[in-house]
Amino acid sequence: MSLAFILFFVFAIIAVAGAVLLIVAREPIHSALSLIMVMVALAALYLMLSAEFVAAVQVIVYAGAIMVLFVFVIMLLNAGMEERTNWSKVAKYAGLPLGVFLLFELAHWLAHSAIGASVANGSEATNAAVSTRALSKMLFQKYLFPFEATSFLILIAILGALVLAKRDE
Amino acid sequence: MVLLNYLWIILALPLAGAAINGLFGKNWPKRAVNSVAIGSVSLAFLAVAELVREFAQLSPGEIPWVKNYFTWIIAGPFRVNFSLQADQLTIVMLLTVSFVGLLIHIYSTGYMEHEAGYYRFFSYLNLFMFFMLTLVLAANIVVMFVGWEGVGLCSYLLIGFWFLKKSAADAGKKAFIVTRIGDFGFTVGILLLFWTFRSVDFGTIFSKVVESPTDVGVLTSICLLLFTGAIGKSAQLPLYVWLPDAMEGPTPVSALIHAATMVTAGVYMVARMNPLFSRAPIAMLAVAIVGTITAFYAATIGLVQTDIKKVLAYSTVSQLGYMFLGCGMGAFHAGIFHLMTHAFFKGLLFLAAGSVIHAMGGEQDMRQMGGLRKRIPVTYWTMFIATLAIAGFPPFAGFFSKDEILYSAYTGPYANKALYAVALAAALLTSFYMFRLVFLTFFGGPRYDEHKVHVHESPKNMLVPLVILAIFATVGGWFAAPKFWGGQDYFRNFLGPVFKDASNLRQGQFSEFAKVAGNLDAMGPSGSQVTLRPEALAEIEAADHKLELELSGVAVLVALIGFFVAWWLYVRKPKAPEDLAKSVHGPYTVLMNKYYVDELYLALIVRPLLWLSTNVLWHVVDEGMIDGTVNGAARVARGAGGELRKLQSGNARSYAGWVVIGAVGVTVLLLGIWMRMAP
Amino acid sequence: MSVVPVSYYLVLSAILFGLGVIAFVLKHNIITIYMAIELMLNAVNLAFVAFARAHNQLDGLVFVFFVIVVAAAESAVGLAIILTIAQNRHSLNVERVNQLKF
User: How much is the ipTM here?
Assistant: First the structure.
C-alpha cells in the first residue's frame, strides 16, 4: 500500500461521506457545509492527479465563491428545517430505485471498462506538460472562442440575476 | 347515310329538350316550354323517319347496323362500349315510341295547361323519351340497362309529379322499389350473360349462341333472370302491384309510360333476346305461363273496379300478359305486333279517359258519370273505337294481333291448349269490362249533379291526338294482316331477319314432325331448309287456313259475348250489377280488394323489412357499431389524453423523477450499444 | 505521479454522481436540490480530470475550467430564481411549486 493509495482512499471517503451527509442532513445549511467538504476533498484529488491549477480554481471559485453564495441565500431566506411532503409518487417509487441503479451501473461499467485498464499508472515523464503556462496557452489559442463566449455568458448571468432579484418598488 | 352514322342525334334531341326546359324553363311562358318540348320530340320523330328511309336502302348483309361511339367501361376483360344499333325490330320500336310519344306530348299541352310545374312535367317527359330511345337503340345489354333504369327513374318522377300529395309520392316510391326487385334479377342475368359469353354485345352473344352449343341450364338461368326484370318492369305477376298505384300520376303519363312504352320494355327485351330464349324451352314456357296467368288474373280484378284509370291499368297488365304469351309461344313477331297495336289503342284509351276526367272537372269514379255520350262526342267515339280494338273485333287493330297470339298458343311447336283456353277466357273478360267501362261512362242517365259539374269537350290540342290514334287503331292492323286475310304479311316478313333464328328452330322442330308424318322429300339436318312434297305442303297450308278461320271465329264470338253481357248489365238492366254483386258477395269483395295482394305484401315483406331496418340495421349496426366505433375512438383518445395529462402534474419533484428515468434509460441504451461496439 | 489506476477515480466519480441523483429526487428543499446538481457537476469534473491525466492531454482540464465558469453563472441566475420563488410561494418546498399543470 503506497502513500498514493492511502491518500486516495482518505480523500475518497471524505468525498463520499460529504455526499451522504448532504442527503441525510435535515437543514439546508448542513447540506451546504457538507458540499463544501466534498469540494475540498475533490480539490485534493485533483492535486493528486497533477492538475494544480484546476485544484486552485476549484477551491477559490467553486468552494469559495459559489458555495458562499449558497450560504448567503440560505441565510437570506432563513431556510430552516424543511417541511416533509410526499406528494410525488414518481420520484419516490421510480426515481430513487433508478438513481441507485444508475450509481451501481455506472460504477460497474467504469470499473470494468477498457479505459481503466489501458491507463494503468501515470509516468513521471508526462508531468512536464501540465503546467499553468501550457494550460493558458491552450486556453488562448485553441479554445479562444469559448473563452470569450463564457465572458459574455457571465455578463448575461449578472444581468439576469439583477433583473430577477429586483424587488418591485 | 347521315343519320345511320349519327344515331345518337335521335337520343340527343329529347335530352337537350329536357335539359333546356329543366334548367331554364321555370320562368318561361308556356309557349316557350311547349316549343322546346314538342319541338325536340318532333325533331326526334323526323330523325326516326329519316332513319327509316336510310335503313330501307341498306342491304341485308349490313343489318343489324351497329355503330360504336366510345368505349365506356374497361375493367379487365369486361368491356362495354356505348354502341347503338338499328335493325328491323329497332325500327318498329322507334316508330312506335316516337310517334305515340309525340302525340302524347301534344295532348299534354292541353291537359296540363293549368298545372303548376308545367316546365318540370315536360322536362321529365323529354327525359323519359331520351331513356326509352336509348333502351331501344342499344346494341349491348348494359346500354339497354341504362335506358331501363332511366325510364324507371322518369316513371318515379312522373308518377310522383304532384309530390305534395302523399298518395302520389308513395306510389312513385312503390313503383321504383318494386321494379328494383326485378332489376336485381336483371343485373344478375347480365352478369351471368357476361360470364357465359365473355361479351355483352348482342351481335357477339347471338353469333356465339348460334354457332357453338351452350349449356341449356345456363341459358335457362340467364333467360329466367332477365325475365324477372321484365316481370318487374312490365308489371306481371307477382310484381304488378305498382302499376295500378301509378295511376296517381297525370293521365298523359299513364298513357305514355304505363301503356305505350315503358311497360313494353320487358316484351322488347324478350324479343331482342330471342336467340337465347328459343334455346331454353323451360324459360319460354315460364314466360308464356306467367303471361297467361297474369292476363287472366288482372282481367278478373278489372271487372269490378270503379275508377276509370284503374280499369285501364289492370287492362294494361292483362294485355302485357298477352304479349308475353305470344313471345313464349315462339311467335315473337306476334308479341311485338300486339305491342304496337296496344300502344295505339291503350294510349288512346288513356288519353280519352283523360279527356273524360278533364270534362268532368277531375272526377275519376265511373259511378259518378253517365250519359256523357252526347256531351263529349269526339271523346266518346274515339274511346269506342279503341274499345272495339282492344276487345278484338275485326277489322280493328287489336283483332289481328290478338288473333296471331291465340293461334300460336293453339298450334305450333310450343303450343299449349291449356294456356290457349285461359287466354281465351281472359279475352272474354277483357271485352266485358272494357264495354262495361264505356257503358258506365257514356250511356244511361247522368249520375252526377248537373249543376255542379259542367261537362265540356276538351280543347283541340287534346282532341287531335285522340283522332289520330283512333285512325291508327283502326287501320294499324291491316299492313300486318297475314296472307289469308288478304294482307301481305309485311310485318312478319319485315321482322323475319330478327327472329329468323327462332323460326329456324321452329322449322327444325316442325321438320321432325313432318318426318314422322311421312311427308318429307329430302332429309336434311334439322334446322336447315327442308323441302316438302308440293302436295303435302298444300295440304298442310289448307289445314292451316281452316284452323285459323275457326280460331278467329271463336275469338270474335267471345268478344261478342262480352259485349252483350256488358250491354245487358249496364244498359238494359242497370240495377242488375248491384244485385249480382250482392249475391256473390264473397268473391265480389275479394275482387274489389284486388285479392288482398297489397295487404299480403305489406304483412309478409314490407313490415318485416321495416322491422329489420329499424331494430337491427339502425339501432344495432348504425348506432351501436358504426357510431360506437367512431365515438369509441374519440372516447379512447379522450381517455388516453386524460390519463396522459396527469403527467403534467406541476409537481417539480415528479418531473425530477421522470428526468432520472429518462437518463437511466439513455445510459443503459448507450452502454449497451457501446459495449457491443467496443473494440 | 499517480500510482492509483485511473479507473478508481472514475468509479469514485460515478459514485458521487449517483449520490447526486439520489439527492436530486429525494430532497424537498429547492436549495438542497440545487446543491445536488452542483454535486453532480463536481463528479463530472473529477471524471474529466481523470481522463485528462489518462490521455495526457490538457483538453480535459480546459473543459473543467469551463464547467466551473458556467456553474458559477448558472448558480447566480438559479439562486436569483429561487429567491423569487421563495418570495412568491412563501415556502422552499419544491412540491409547492405546482402551478404549471393541466
Answer: 0.90
